[in-house]
Design goal:
947 residues, mainly alpha, Serine Threonine Protein Phosphatase 5, Tetratricopeptide repeat, 44 helices
């Protein structure tokens, strides 16, 4: 459009000059605004730009004297210029007012509203004017500055609609997008940002629009759509090459682009977090078919974001997602470390263990990951560290846990330590690791393997700090192994333990467990019967300087003593046990055992002498047991054996003295019975029947002896007392025998006979008659066991009982009053008759004839008693004669019975029986019937009337 000249409009003259000057000044004071876009603020510290912090649009710096310029415009407008000049002046005045307020930092609605009114007046007066796009742009700016955002947006929409080809269209659309974004109207903002991007990279605010476009998509949860936008920004702003570390990558970004790049990376991470984390990155790349050159950075950034949010599991899964998609990537080990670190920071210890195991498995030296490549030093260091961490973890868990899971955890621990030993043989801590390996094997029940590793640790790495500890641990492991194996395998295991102990002793002379190991070795050598070696090692311990403990020295002396004893070198054993005993206090618990072994050593010397035929030397050795160790349990046997030796030597005094000593010291000992038997034999052979009887009597009453032994001893004791003429003791012995041993009947009968005899000798008529009756009773009740001997003894006893009864009858005199004395005498006579008649039933001639003879005497005595009885006092002579005649008549039948009894004896002559009792009967018949038996002739011709 052709502008009218100032001359035509204003005319000519002085006023014209003033007008031109004012207009010039005004135009110089207010050049057209360039409307630069607002700066992009850093969003690395927040998820998205904060609308409340977006700046008010400001123009370029105000002219040096804006008030003068405004006054010039007012003066110009007072001159009533042409429309074009007026409109231009009005617009410039309004622009300058906005500019001045911007410069002052004010948003005074009164001032800005003047500009807004001017702009609206211009639009109203000049609708459709070609430069109204500029007016609309500034009007929108005025509305924005006083906070009338909706009017600003509407004005910018009008500009776009009415002037789509305006040079300000890009600025207007961007400005409107910014206002819409600030209001949270992201879908509308999206369209305006997209329009600006469509203008090409050369358009104003292209990069800002691009950035805000991505954010508007993100705000609408359009994560898959926003990611390409931010990736494009990152591709442009990040340094070249494949990037991995977010901090390192951002540090290389230009300073003015750092906020843009860091925010774009962060919102990318936020998008993937919203899509599901690390797995969503894998899904996104798979769907897109390509990854940006900085794809490791994407995983790392998302993982770091999750760590920052303390979402440690999600962080670990993000790092794992990278490994899943790129398992052979050079950075895969680093990402696995990220997994471990994330779980560690989250306190997921079990998962840390699992991921460390995965790290070692995936990247150990022999794994497929390296495919012939050499592992990096960083990976090797981490492998080494992880292996030890895992070993210590499982070892600690096993130590703190309870069976049955402990053994499995110890085995796991040992496996990790083994990996270190295999993969890092030159590790500076290899000896320590080997010791840990051995400990895990030991605690896991693999005792043999543990012992092997302890030995390797102790002697396979030179002189190191854990060598002594491992050496003793090997000894302990082999000791336990000896307890675990079968009895047949135990000697072999003990031999290994011994060798380990002696190697410790030879290698580490100052080892704190030196004496312990050597002591144990000496004991084990003795157990496996390496007795000479056991003595050598024990003596080495005894000679140790500084000396071993008192307890260890006692053990060493014990080994020497036991070894010599086992070898049959009993004098040396005796000496060693004596030394050992001297070390023991009186109240020592093991003193008794040593005493017993010392006694056994002496006893064995006695046995050896006995086997060699040196009985006296044997006896002396046996007795020395009691002299040296009187309280030894073997002493009774030793004393007994000494006595036996003396018996064989027929040294009866020493034999009996030794046996009596035994009996007095050990009255209840199991050998007491044998002692008494030997005493009985020795005393008999030494001519001491009473002492022998005493020993036998003790045997007889001892409950533990067999019945036959007791019976024989009881009988022999009684007979020996008899032989020694110790009748009271003999009587007691016979009585004991009779009471306790009814069989055989003949001994019982004989014993009763002796008891009757003893009573008779001591004139104890009651006991005499008692034992006679007991004798008769024993015979009569013997039944089938009855013998001729018992019968004969029974007959003799019955005879003596009859004689005693006759004597009793004879002792009763017939005194006045006769009616009282006569019945007693008669009863006694009848008892005697019965007793004597019983004797004949035994069938023995001697006893029968004696009883028969005595029967005649009883009858004769009764007859005489009648005749000699007292006569009643005061009888007259004729009465006395008559009384005497009557008595004689009464006595005569008894004389006749006496004759008959003696005739019975006389008849036995026909049986070829003749003894003193028959002879006595013959004599009595001569006295009783002289007419018939008074003539004596030769025996063969006598008593023809009896034939």
């Amino acid at each position: 459009m052709t502008r009218p000249t100032l001359r035509r409009t204003l005319g000519v003259g002085a006023p014209l000059a003033a007008s031109v000057a004012a207009l010039f000044l005004a135009s110089c004071a207010a050049p057209p605004p360039k409307n630069a876009s607002p700066p992009i603020r850093s969003i690395s510290r927040q998820p998205a730009p904060n609308p409340s912090q977006l700046p008010i649009v400001r123009s370029e710096p105000v002219a040096p004297d804006p008030d003068k310029a405004l006054q010039n415009y007012r003066e110009l407008l007072k001159l009533a210029p042409d429309d074009d000049t007026r409109n231009e002046a009005m617009r410039r005045q309004a622009d300058l007012q906005l500019q001045v307020e911007d410069a002052k930092g004010n948003t005074d609605p009164a001032v800005i509203n003047k500009s807004i009114q001017t702009y609206n007046q211009l639009l109203s007066q000049r609708p459709g004017a070609p430069d109204n796009d500029r007016v609309l742009y500034q009007l929108a700016r005025g509305y924005q500055n006083i906070g009338q955002t909706d009017q600003a947006i509407a004005t910018l929409r009008r500009l776009a609609q009415e002037y789509p080809k305006s040079s300000l269209i890009g600025d207007a659309r961007f400005r409107r997008a910014e206002l819409l974004y600030n209001l949270g109207r992201y879908d509308q903002a999206e369209a305006d940002y997209e329009f600006v991007l469509g203008l090409g990279t050369g358009a104003s605010f292209y990069q800002s629009a691009q950035y805000k476009y991505g954010w508007s998509l993100y705000k609408q949860d359009k994560y898959n759509q926003c990611l390409p936008v931010f990736f494009t920004i990152l591709e442009r702003e990040l340094p070249q090459g494949e990037l991995e570390d977010p901090d390192a990558a951002l540090a290389a970004v230009a300073k003015e682009k750092l906020d843009l790049a860091s925010s774009s990376l962060r919102v990318s991470s936020l998008s993937f977090a919203a899509l599901g984390g690390g797995s969503s990155i894998n899904a996104y790349f798979k769907k897109s078919g390509r990854e940006p050159r900085f794809y490791p950075l994407v995983y790392n950034a998302l993982g770091d974001l999750f760590v920052e949010k303390r979402r440690f599991s999600d962080a670990a899964l993000t790092y794992s997602a990278f490994i899943e998609r790129y398992p052979m990537h050079p950075s895969a080990p680093k990402f696995q470390l990220g997994v471990i670190k994330a779980y560690g920071e989250g306190g997921f210890n079990d998962l840390v263990v699992r991921e460390k195991e995965r790290y070692v498995t995936a990247y150990e030296i022999s794994s497929a990951y390296w495919n012939g490549r050499a592992p990096t030093p960083e990976v090797l260091a981490e492998l080494r560290k992880s292996m030890e961490d895992l070993g210590r973890h499982y070892q600690a868990m096993a130590q703190a846990g309870t069976a049955p899971g402990n053994a499995a955890n110890f085995v796991k621990a040992s496996g990790w330590y083994k990996k270190i030993l295999d993969n890092f043989p030159n590790d500076p801590k290899i000896a320590d690791i080997n010791l840990l390996y051995a400990d895990a094997l030991y605690d896991g029940g693999r005792t043999s393997d543990a012992a092997e590793q302890y030995l390797k640790t102790a002697y396979g790495y030179g002189n190191h700090g854990k060598a002594q500890e491992a050496a003793y641990a090997a000894v302990q492991a082999l000791q336990r192994l000896a307890k675990e194996v079968s009895a047949t395998e135990r000697p072999k295991a003990l031999r290994k333990s011994i060798d380990a102990s002696l190697k410790l002793a030879d290698t580490f002379n100052n080892h704190p467990q030196w004496t312990v190991a050597v002591t144990r070795a000496a004991q084990d050598l003795y157990e496996i019967k390496a007795t000479d070696e056991a003595v050598t090692v024990a003596e080495r311990l005894i000679a140790r300087t500084p000396p071993a403990t008192a307890e260890q020295r006692k053990i060493a002396f014990g080994v020497v003593a036991d070894a010599r004893f086992a070898q049959g070198r009993y004098p040396e054993a005796e000496a060693a046990y004596g030394r050992l005993l001297a070390l023991l206090p009186a109240n020592a618990t093991d003193r008794k055992l040593v005493v017993e072994q010392l006694a056994a050593s002496i006893y064995k010397q006695g046995e050896a002498a006995r086997e060699a035929g040196n009985l006296r030397g044997a006896a002396d050795a046996f007795l020395r047991v009691g002299t040296v160790v009187p309280d030894a349990s073997i002493r009774p046997n030793a004393d007994f054996d000494a006595a036996s030796a003396y018996l064989k030597l027929e040294d009866w005094p020493k034999a009996t003295a030794t046996l009596e000593g035994f009996r007095n010291r050990y009255p209840t000992h199991a050998l007491a019975g044998d002692v008494d038997k030997q005493l009985a034999a020795a005393y008999q052979k030494d001519g001491k029947p009473a002492e022998a009887a005493g020993a036998l009597q003790r045997i007889a009453v001892r409950p533990g002896e067999p019945v036959d032994t007791r019976r024989e001893s009881a009988w022999l004791a009684a007979t020996l007392y008899d032989e020694a003429r110790q009748k009271p003791q003999a009587a007691k012995a016979y009585e004991y025998y009779i009471v306790n041993f009814p069989q055989p009947i003949e001994r019982g009968i004989s014993g009763r006979r002796r008891l009757a005899d003893y009573a008779q000798e001591t004139r104890d008529r009651g006991r005499y008659l008692y034992w006679l009756r007991e004798l008769v009773k024993a015979d009569e009740t013997a039944g089938s066991l009855r013998t001729d001997v018992s019968k004969q003894a029974g007959a003799q006893a019955a005879l003596e009982l009859g004689l005693a009864a006759a004597q009793d009858a004879r002792g009763i005199r017939l005194t006045l009053p006769v009616e009282k004395s006569l019945p007693a005498r008669k009863a006694a006579t009848e008892a005697a008759v019965q007793a004597l008649n019983r004797v004949s039933g035994y069938g023995f001639a001697d006893s029968a004839t004696a009883a028969t003879y005595e029967l005649g005497v009883v009858y004769r005595d009764f007859s005489r008693a009648l005749v000699e009885s007292e006569r009643p006092r005061g009888l007259k002579p004729e009465e006395l004669d008559q009384y005497n005649l009557l008595i004689e008549e009464q006595a005569d039948p008894f004389d006749q019975k006496a004759i008959e009894a003696h005739e019975v004896n006389l008849k036995r002559v026909k049986q070829n029986v003749w003894n003193k009792s028959i002879a006595a009967s013959v004599k009595a018949l001569g006295e009783l019937a002289p007419a018939k038996y008074g003539k004596r002739e030769t025996r063969e011709d006598s008593y023809e009337s009896l034939r």
